[in-house]
Amino acid sequence: MMNNKKLYLTGLIACCFSLLPIVAQDNADADYGNYIDDKEVTSHITKQAGDLFDSGHFTGLFKLRQEMDRHKKAAVSYNEEKLSKKAQFSFDEHKEGVLILAKLYICDKCPNYHISTATGFVINKDGIGVTNHHVFKKSANNSSMHLSVYAIDYEGNIYPVKQVLAGDELSDLALFKIDTSNELKPLRLGDDLNIGDDLHLISHPDKRYYYYSYGKVMRQHTSNKYKSPRQSISADFAKGSSGGPVFNTQGEVVGIVTTTNSIYYTPNQNLQMVIRDVIPVSLLKNMIQKDMVTTSIKKGVPEQ
């Protein structure tokens, strides 16, 4: 589905995203090439997503939502080999598997395109990604016309989300396929953490792209709303972080960001605490069907 126009657009956004300089007011000669200008990145993503939409490179969000509600599981291959115990989390390495998800929409106040953003991550090189179920759900803002969803990698390449393979509202998870001929850099899936375990997190809180935080698992509980397992963590995240990967100390994905819950001393006054919940990775693994042929080939067992 991609054409020369797409290659031009991805090249343009890669230049502004990966290499975008920030000019200091008091020192225009300083090199700030490793600093991200969030407003500039948002502007370029919006422009390129709008251009791709205008040129017909999209799947409508209504169709994506229908696909998500059609299947709770999907047959997806991912790397099941365990990492060496000497492996370590590295922001520079693992950020390459983290995606920005941009939901393109038009508001009722102007004719321009806008984006709302969330987080996702890649689990195989062919472009299978993971995020929250609620990322694809209808927005509470009924005055906006939501059009489609685009995925952006760390290099600034932008891809239409082609299909939602499966969704589970109770787990708040969705598996999706992006439209790409490039090989992406997948993250490995690990095992659920326990209370007190260390963890790392990469996400995009409120369009602050590639924000790193770290902490520990503080609690394990069942969601009051969905009756589904959750883990509360101390690492920071906020709106826009939905779908972000939580890593163990070896760099394996062990959870997925889902919700925050603010505790006030009195209703909406005197904020005391923010509970930050993530989804254990075992719920994601439960969504992934393993057909016999794929499993037997991968494990070297002859077909019957």
From TrEMBL:
Q: Give UniProt keywords alphabetically.
A: Hydrolase, Protease, Serine protease, Signal
- Name a GO molecular-function annotation: serine-type peptidase activity
Stated EC number for the protein is 3.4.21.-
Q: Where is the signal peptide?
A: 1-24
Q: Which domain of life is it from?
A: Bacteria
Active-site residues, as the UniProt record annotates them: H134, D172, S242
Keyword Signal applies: yes
The UniProt entry, under Pfam families, shows:
Trypsin_2
Q: Which GO terms describe its biological process?
A: proteolysis
Q: What family, per the record?
A: Belongs to the peptidase S1B family.
What's the protein name? Serine protease
